[in-house]
Amino acid sequence: MVNLRHRKPDDRSNNVERIRDIVKNTEEKVQEVEMSMEFADPLESNRLKEKNKRRKQSIEALKEEMKDEMTARKKGEI
Predict the structure, then answer these.
(1) Angle, helix 15-36 to helix 42-74, in steps of 10 degrees
(2) Largest CA distance in the chain
(3) Contacting residues for 36 by C-beta, under 8 A, at least 6 apart
(4) Is the separation of the CB atoms in 76 and 26 below 8 Å?
(5) What does the pLDDT read at residue 10?
(6) 28: which residues sit within 8 A by CB, 6+ positions away?
(7) Residue 18 and residue 22: Cα distance in Å, rounded?
(8) Contacts of 20-23 spanning 24+ positions with Cβ under 8 A
(9) Contacts of 40 (CB under 8 A, 6+ apart)
């Protein structure tokens, strides 16, 4: 049985800012990796390219989530 007394309430009030920080950090990581790829061997370079591809997909998904959160905030749902 779930103990509801110790459950934290869902606080979405800072989601836009939190997501914005995550996007910024991920974009910085993509740039760092792109610069370091010139020193990587071909196998490692391919692995890093694939990882950055996934990061870029995550960034796009996070930006969509941020739009949803901003819309909810404007409608007063948050």
Answers:
(1) 160
(2) 54
(3) 48
(4) no
(5) 75
(6) none
(7) 6
(8) 20/66, 22/62, 23/59, 23/62, 23/63, 23/66
(9) 48
pLDDT in tens, 15-42: 999 999 999 999 999 999 999 999 999 9
pLDDT tens for each residue of 40-68? 999 999 999 999 999 999 999 999 999 99
Match 């800012």 to its residue by tokens.
Answer: 17
39-78 b/e (C-beta count within 10 Å ≥ 16 → b): eeeeeeeeebeeebeeeeeebeeeeeebeebeeeeeeeeb
Which residue's structure tokens are 């390219």? 49
Q: In this structure, what token pair is assigned to residue 75?
A: 């409608």
